[in-house]
């Protein structure tokens, strides 16, 4: 099928790189108008900026420089999408910091930075999106808007040395469940995707490389994941095909959580 998001307006936080980049590209190629909210439009893993790729393909996309830990910045990004295009149909939150280390090795600075982006950033974006979506005209399926948070299987498949990151993603899981329950009557759908060992090549930090290698070694499937694997799942959950799925966690991990 093609054009599964035709005419939808989607805001992707962290959409300049990694999994967020893959989701932004897939959504735009399925007909969505995509607003990319990130601190920079240059992917740290290298390559052409997401917006530049979509511009070259003739897709509708804009980039908005956003500090996702700032209340004013995050609310302005949501307002930008709604004011410019008339509504916000989908919010995807992907931005996070992969600080590694056991709790005894985690500094207060690392803890606070991890939670600021991976939890507070999701809270701020989701709150602004719910406020916007709740006042929109609902679709034929009764949905006014969809929120999709990118989590992590460390919540269910414990990984060593991920104290701050795992705590942050556990909070995202519960926040998404609360949004799904509290705002179902408002026509808001909210779900979580848990990616497994996804090859992005963002960093050569030894602890992050080691964590990725451990996750890949524990993955039952015969290859590590790709950002496109997560984007495919995100497309389904953002589409009208998933109207009765809310408060759910979809593992895209090659069997890691089951293992």
Description:
Strand 4 (90-93), helix 4 and strand 5 (145-150) form a beta-alpha-beta unit. Helix 1 (18-29) crosses helix 7 (227-238), helix 3 packs parallel to helix 4 and helix 4 (108-134) runs parallel beside helix 5. Helix content is 41%, strand content 15%. The two termini are 32 Å apart. It is built from seven helices and seven strands; from the N terminus they run E-H-E-H-E-H-E-H-E-H-E-H-H-E. Strands 3-2-1-4-5-6-7 form a seven-stranded parallel β-sheet, with helices on both faces. The protein is α/β, with parallel strands linked by helices. The longest helix is centred in the middle third of the chain and has 27 residues, at 108-134.
CATH level-four homologous superfamily name: NAD(P)-binding Rossmann-like Domain
Give the helices and strands as they follow along the chain: EHEHEHEHEHEHHE
How many separate domains?
1
* CATH topology (level 3) name: Rossmann fold
Cα(first) to Cα(last) distance is: 32 Å
Quaternary status of these chains? Answer: single chain
Rg value: 17 Å
User: What is the CATH level 1 assignment?
Assistant: Alpha Beta
**Coarse structural class:** alpha/beta
**Average pLDDT:** 89
The best one-word shape is globular
